[in-house]
Design brief:
Number of strands: 0
Low-confidence stretches: none
Number of helices: 4
Largest sheet: none
Number of domains: 1
Distance between the termini: 49 Å
Structural class: mainly alpha
Shape: elongated
Strand content: under 5%
């Protein structure tokens, strides 16, 4: 039987998603935090707050990719 992945607190999970955004997409901290805050304001993470058992490393990696696609900053002209 597979052992369940350890879960994080909701706050730790959001921090991990922001950290992954900086690592995967080479965003600066302020941009990564802004993306997470926008997603949170849109209730993207509402289920995570209700059920912290889904706040795992694997889910953070999935959610980082999803929120980047949904909330990535606009490209600057000339790039």
């Amino acid at each position: 039987m597979k052992k369940p992945a350890p879960s994080m607190t909701y706050e730790q999970f959001l921090d991990e998603v922001a950290t992954l955004l900086t690592e995967i997409y080479t965003l600066d901290d302020d941009t990564a935090i802004a993306i997470v805050m926008r997603a949170q304001a849109d209730d993207f993470f509402s289920g995570h707050d209700d059920d912290t058992s889904i706040c795992t490393q694997e889910r953070a990696e999935q959610d980082a990719r999803t929120v980047f696609k949904l909330y990535k900053p606009a490209r600057k002209k000339g790039r």
